Amino acid sequence: MSEVDLFQDSESNSQEIGEREEEDNASFLDTTNIDLPAIMRELKDIKAKQEEILKALTEMKSTSRVTFHVESSSVKKPLIAVLKGMFYTSPWLDEDNSQILTVEIKKIFKNVHEPAEPSAVVKCVSFAHYHFTNWRNQVRHKLVTNGKKVEVMPLSQLQTYLFGMFGSYGGDVILNMRTTVALRAFVDSRKLFGTNSTVGIDFWESFRNTTKGLTEERWKRLKERQERKIEDIRKED
Fold it and tell me: Do the domain assignments include residue 152?
């Protein structure tokens, strides 16, 4: 093949390639086969989904900013029930009880399907301390109030009188009876029955000091002594 033939073939190939590129470009630029309505629908769907996601994120941020209040929450009712059971067993929230309380609070949040945020748990603990203080004040007032003849009540009756509203919430009956016996003994020793007042003494702190370190035998003797006192007073009446 001569150089002229080779040149002509090369020129012919170049022309064919150029024609194919023009056809491809024309096909690419041809909008007659594009489904514009379908594309618009897809774009509209994408925009709608973006708006839904944005709305959900906004609601999540708004919810996270809502301040938790025990009184208006679904946690309150089950929390009160737990607190009453704990108060019946022991009318104080000491270190051990506080740890138990924190575990119970987290269980409550889980049961009502709410997140146990640390700040919400702290508010529940504060709520518990407030109620324990209030309930102790109620018990103290019942012990010293006049007109009830508290000092002549049998121990079982006194227990119901002081702690009846807490007794159906799963507390420890034996420990509660010990508290009842010790309270009666304390009020009797301070001659507070019927005075309607505890002015001048730190009632609960003084009471706790009298019950520290009592053995099983001393608890037994204390109960027997209070039962004899009650019997003697009832005979006098």
Answer: yes
